[in-house]
Amino acid sequence: MLRQYSVSRLLGRSVLLFFVLVLMLTACAQPATEAPTEEPAEEPVLIAFGHVGPVSDEGWTWSHDQGMKAVEAAFGDRVRTALVENMPFSEETPRTLEQFVADGAKVIFITSEYADFVYEVADAHPEVVFLECNGHRANDNMVNYYIEHWDPSYVIGIAAGLLTESNQLGYVGSYPTDSVYTSVNAFHLGARSVNPDVTTKVVLINSWFDPSAANQAGNTLIDDGADFLFGIMDEAAYLEVAQERGVWAAMWNTDIRRFGPEAYVSSIMLDWKSYYVEEVGAALDGTWEGNRENILLPIGAGVDRDEWGKNVPQDVQDQADAVRDQMLNEGLNVFVGPIYDTEGNLVIKEGEELSDEYLYREWIWAVEGVVGMP
């Protein structure tokens, strides 16, 4: 009995050991459950900006830099940005743009007109989106864009015509470009709409950013009798002159009244933020389209007048803003003939309206009462 019992125990243990081994082998044969793997994060898309001036100008380039910051805020980790300031109008510009492409840029904003310096690079890289501010060409991978600055220029001109006592207005310009012609003409016609006796004298300084030359031009215009200064400059030099000399001034690009709070009337305010976010969003989503020529941001949606200066009388504000309100709410076109040139020739017939395309590109002659444009 003892021997039989011992054998049974041994057999029982053997069976138990067999089942343990089977379970172990089965467990080992089961494929290991792999830990879930995370999808690799997408690389941020490089959005590059080539600027004509320094971001510190608190003017034109600063306004575009605010657009870049809006892109960064809107898309976060989906994008990264790069910029180059003071891009010259030379063969250095294509090299800069090529470097953007080499660094992986998929969208490049060129924030001033560089023409052929941009086109040769855009043509060589059809996979990259190019957007040229105030440019002259659009194709499959390129558009040009700008603002309808002539409307707020006219509104500020109304204020100038009401504020001037000498009936002499001064304009500090850069070059005799279509933008400058349209700017001074719109300003002057706005002034003449309320004061037919005004004249506007222009001094061109052959630069968009030259505080010393703008200062000298402002003083020259005041010495010649101007008591209101306007112009397209990327800095505040002539506003500081107006403050020192006790005359009025209106500016371009941004609110820089702190440089001349007593003299400040208003400014052509530029706001690229919404437009830049829209274009970058389309590029990221694969819905971006080229071949859009002359994208013009209208008053109230990219360009407008700034808040009036603290010394501008309420009745002046009201009279100018009555026209602005019609532009915003009724689509008023104030650029209607008859309009004469500086020689007294009728160029725009009675009742003829100037189109946005004409105002943008074709108004390259000075209107009656403007002095100093070639």
Task: Outline the secondary-structure elements.
Layout (H helix, E strand, L loop, with lengths): L1 H28 L15 E6 L9 H16 L3 E6 L7 H11 L2 E6 L5 H9 L4 E5 L8 E6 L2 H14 L4 E6 L4 H15 L6 E6 L6 H13 L4 E4 L5 H9 L2 E6 L10 E7 L2 H13 L9 E3 L5 E3 L8 H17 L8 E2 L5 E3 L7 H7 L7 E2 L3
Parallel strand pairs: 1-2, 1-3, 3-4, 4-5, 5-11, 6-7, 6-8, 7-15, 8-9, 9-10
Antiparallel strand pairs: 10-12, 13-14
Helix pairs in contact: 2-9, 3-4, 5-6, 5-10, 7-8
Describe this structure as you would to a colleague.
The protein has 374 residues and is α/β, with parallel strands linked by helices. It folds into 2 domains: 129 residues, Rossmann fold (3-Layer(aba) Sandwich), CATH 3.40.50; 192 residues, Response regulator (Rossmann fold, 3-Layer(aba) Sandwich), CATH 3.40.50. Helices cover 41% and strands 19% of the residues. The protein is built from 11 helices and 15 strands. The strands form 3 sheets. It has a 7-stranded mixed sheet with strand order 12-10-9-8-6-7-15, sandwiched between helices. Strands 2-1-3-4-5-11 form a 6-stranded parallel sheet, sandwiched between helices. A two-stranded antiparallel ribbon has the order 13-14. A hairpin with a 5-residue loop joins strand 13 and strand 14. The radius of gyration is 33 Å and the shape is globular. The termini are far apart. The N terminus is likely disordered.
